[in-house]
Amino acid sequence: xxxxxxxxxxxxxxxxxxxxxxxxxxxxxxxxxxxxxxxxxxxxxxxxxxxxxxxxxxxxxxxxxxxxxxxxxxxxxxxxxxxxxxxxxxxxxxxxxxxxxxxxxxxxxxxxxxxxxxxxxxxxxxxxxxxxxxxxxxxxxxxxxxxxxxxxxxxxxxxxxxxxxxxxxxxxxxxxxxxxxxxxxxxxxxxxxxxxxxxxxxxxxxxxxxxxxxxxxxxxxxxxxxxxxxxxxxxxxxxxxxxxxxxxxxxxxxxxxxxxxxxxxxxxxxxxxxxxxxxxxxxxxxxxxxxxxxx
Amino acid sequence: xxxxxxxxxxxxxxxxxxxxxxxxxxxxxxxxxxxxxxxxxxxxxxxxxxxxxxxxxxxxxxxxxxxxxxxxxxxxxxxxxxxxxxxxxxxxxxxxxxxxxxxxxxxxxxxxxxxxxxxxxxxxxxxxxxxxxxxxxxxxxxxxxxxxxxxxxxxxxxxxxxxxxxxxxxxxxxxxxxxxxxxxxxxxxxxxxxxxxxxxxxxxxxxxxxxxxxxxxxxxxxxxxxxxxxxxxxxxxxxxxxxxxxxxxxxxxxxxxxxxxxxxxxxxxxxxxxxxxxxxxxxxxxxxxxxxxxxxxxxxxxxxxxxxxxxxxxxxx
Lengths: 295, 317
Known about the structure:
The structure holds two protein chains of two kinds.
Chain A lengths: L16 H6 L2 H22 L32 H37 L1 H16 L2 H12 L7 H27 L3 H8 L4 H12 L1 H24 L11 H8 L8 H27 L9
Helix pairs in contact in A: 2-3, 2-11, 3-4, 3-6, 3-8, 3-9, 4-6, 5-6, 6-9, 9-10, 9-11, 10-11
Chain B lengths: L1 H29 L5 H6 L5 H10 L6 H13 L13 H36 L4 H15 L2 H15 L15 H35 L2 H8 L4 H38 L5 H10 L3 H29 L1 H6 L1
Helix pairs in contact in B: 1-12, 5-6, 5-8, 6-8, 7-8, 7-10, 8-10, 9-10, 10-11, 10-12, 11-12
GO biological process, one term (chain A): transmembrane transport
InterPro entries (chain A): BP-dependent_transpt_permease, MetI-like, MetI-like_sf
Pfam families (chain A): BPD_transp_1 (PF00528)
């Protein structure tokens, strides 16, 4: 029997000082932005300059100042404090939703790609159908279907983000599994008599890790936008929770009186997504994947 | 011949996909466990209101019967009656679809320019400052949520420098100049959102084509650079961008929801949001189904175009 030389790709697990110096610039900038956002979000859980729901923190609509960098809204709530408190909500919802989509999508996609046959056919048709419904429409319809009892609950948002993402991730995972299934070590594992689950999760999954990691990062970049859009349209997290999309929507009436209440949180949201995008771009280059174009 | 067979199988799969979409929409909206009427009206609805809604939605029939009735009606062009307004959905939808089609065409025309021009500039100036500057701008725009970009443009051109109307409320009474002016901001927002995805793909594929042998040959033959670019390189570089354009059409259908909302444009997107807010199930089903039909049709067209534009694909698939 010939020696199997292919080693499972584990490059992603080794980040050290040398690697950091050798990493592409965009990745570093992205990573720094993301770390700053994470620290800001953690701080926002424990401390904000004013209470996030505290009315009368200052003169309503008085614009930006040192005390109120993002101004004050109609009822005198400090927008910066709300923005700060909302940071961990946005990050956690994005992360949980993407994670749910990744777990569901990866499991189904890898199984579908490896098993093939009618199971694959059925899965692909359902995935195709789900992708054919514009994702925002799909998300909104699911929120309506969940009914008024669940509306505005974080659990529902996480679930919806996961369900919108899952079919898109299934496709990526399936393509990776179909490619890896032809390798020698999978054939060897089959000859050893390993079961389907064991092959999928112990042979195929580790080798698809690079592809999946980039996909995770890409989906994570888009999650704050999706969650923000739901909030903006009034179908997201329930007020007065300061989710950023909801805040931008609420303060839009103040666009003429105090634009900073809209563009402050807007800038914050955009910088988070820029951080994610740069990070994803750098990550995909470092892991030898094709640069990703989004969508 | 193989092109025809390919076409036939693609069409067949598209129809199958749409059938599945109809099942999915029906399942999500009407066949989830629990009482549909209670879910729509909330727990504190009166028994009378619940009863009325049940009869409006034919909820006394089994789900399977209701599904096939809906599907049959849909295929015959009967979309049912809107619960909120009591009007036939086809009457409500018609003008909205026309408005959104107008907006989309306008946006698409701007999109072509916004995608092609920067990509050509980048590819012909590879590695130079202008290439990097456009890359950075693209990345920033790519990271802007559509609702934020729409709000920024609204602020810039309707509040700070008031040259365009903030609200795109058009009606049959508006003249075509008014309609066009009202559509500028929403159309530009949509075009930018679509273009940022296409620019990257188009730039990369154009660079690849510009390095190929046949472009070299065309240059060595002594053709003018513009002739090489537009007659030889561009048609071949556009194929990968076609896929993005199909994806973009999918985005456009979702994007109009937000952009129309921001500018209060009376189109398909605002209708969907209204339907969702009023929990008008027949109207929701009809609008979502139609958006899926458009998406699938757009992908089909993009696939067929890709085959026709690149002979290599005719045999390899």
